[in-house]
Amino acid sequence: MVIQETKRIFITNINPPFLTILIQSKTLASQSLPLTSPPFSTAPNPLTMASMMQPQIILLKEGTDTSQGKPQLVSNINACMAVADVVRTTLGPRGMDKLIHDDKGNTTISNDGATIMKLLDVVHPAAKILVDIAKSQDSEVGDGTTTVVLLAGEFLREAKPFIEDGVHPQNLIRSYRNASHMAIEKIKELAVSIEGKSLDEKRSLLAKCAATTLSSKLIGGEKDFFAKMVVDAVIAIGSEDRLNMIGIKKVPGGTMRDSFLVNGVAFKKTFSYAGFEQQPKKFLNPKILLLNIELELKSEKENAEIRLSDPLQYQSIVDAEWNIIYDKLDKCVKSGAKIVLSRLAIGDLATQYFADRDIFCAGRVAEDDLHRVAAATGATVQTSVNNVIDEVLGSCEVFEEKQVGNERFNIFNGCPSGQTATIVLRGGADQFIEEAERSLHDAIMIVRRAMKNSTVVAGGGAIDMEISRYLWQHARNIAGKSQLFINSFAKALEVIPRQLCDNAGFDATDVLNKLRQKHALPSGEGALYGVDINTGGISDSFANFVWEPALVKINAINAATEAACLILSVDETVKNPKSESAQGEAAGGMGRGRGGGRGRGMRRR
């Protein structure tokens, strides 16, 4: 009897490498089953089998989390919109403040977009891009940090329905970049130059820019007082690019109106020894010596071993140490300087020595204060007291020590080079003074930018509405999907005036309709109309001196568009939790190694 063995192959799971093949054997007699008609083909296609049996290529470590495709992109957009919603309410003169406190108990009250974004400690990888653009706007321009985050969030909000409908992100990115380029060209066209004005006119125009920035801050109630102070400080440093030439000193107590500007340098009195009170506290036209050496009696530090055959020789060694310090002090006095400042300590011996000779001294002066004194007085910091000539000494018209609140300040006025200024801030609470400092920093940056790039545009949402109208009009001439994408970009720009209204408690729909009607006038006379925060209607922002440098808007639209395009171009996020846990364990191990283990040489208990 002829026996034939047939194999039946059932593929139960075709997901390599978990390919399970069930082989069933059955012995069939030739009499019961004809050989000509088997139930399954005994010769399967070898190409098909080879493709199914190929092993999987593993690129990533086990445990790697990958998410990709449309859901991943929508998730990133949602995260960025959530971050934008956090700072949304801080925009404009009626914006609210955020109170942020950390695990160390530090409390910060601020409505500055960049400060809030830094303190939020965002962990989502896509949302961190918004933190970066806020920091970039802060360092490049100084103001508009909330605007840039809000615009980026709104661009993504408008893009989200298109992504969900299956539009390819690259189409959106291309249209957004074109729209951004057209918007920036329009801003340059609408910008008004303040170049060629007299100094008094320029001061007035710059003060208007500073007041616009300060109006949205905590110190907005005194914006005119501080705007003038900021403009004076920026003009005082002239073409000097270094921002640290404007010092801001904080003294708790008093009111904001007690703040004042020093056309020179002011810093808090440093630690002093006995004899300090005997020194004069006021000089007219003094010479100033700046040092980077210690004027202190120091014993030998190098563990030197000296063998003496005669005990009387010990006195000569002690005398030599005293002679070294006295020689340094004599050279300082002979230089003719009446004020001696050092970055390192000036000891009690030197303090008394200078007091006996009617010389003022201060040791341990902060490095940035010392550099500002050098820039203002024309002095050069010396690392030796040998050969101190007149060329390295500085001078000023008046030096005096004044009491400001509970602090005593050393103030240099009437400095010859005049490339420094110091603002002394007063106020009730520490958090309030900290926020006032951040506000002044923004205003200083804005005034510097307005001086260098002397073009301004109308604020209050006027420029945003005009660009939006321009893009809506331009989009009508475009055939295809790009028309929809540019329209969505134009609609996103309206978020600025809309949010200004919402934060002030006005009806945003009503105000925006009025603005659209005004900006649509064919004569173009409505191009400068924006939101009027005081009345809840619309007004000519330019006539009301609500100005901002054109660079603020250009930078904000550029950065927001780039951030939105960057997020739209990401279609996969790869996260390796194993490497993260390994880093955490390493950090924990280091902590245990430092404090948890028993140190070498410690006694057992």
TrEMBL record:
Q: Which PROSITE patterns match?
A: TCP1_1, TCP1_2, TCP1_3
Name recorded for this polypeptide: T-complex protein 1 subunit eta
Subunit text? Heterooligomeric complex that forms two stacked rings.
- CDD domains referenced in this protein's UniProt entry, alphabetically: TCP1_eta (cd03340)
Q: Superkingdom of this entry's organism?
A: Eukaryota
Q: Family per UniProt?
A: Belongs to the TCP-1 chaperonin family.
User: Where do the segments described as Disordered lie?
Assistant: 577-605
Task: Indicate, by first and last residue, each region the UniProt record lists as having compositional bias (Basic residues).
Answer: 595-605
GO MF annotation: an example: ATP hydrolysis activity
Q: What does this protein do?
A: Molecular chaperone; assists the folding of proteins upon ATP hydrolysis. Known to play a role, in vitro, in the folding of actin and tubulin.
Which keywords annotate this record? ATP-binding, Chaperone, Cytoplasm, Nucleotide-binding
Chaperone listed as a keyword: yes
Q: What is the lineage of its organism?
A: Eukaryota, Viridiplantae, Streptophyta, Embryophyta, Tracheophyta
Q: Name one GO cellular component term.
A: chaperonin-containing T-complex
Subcellular compartments = Cytoplasm
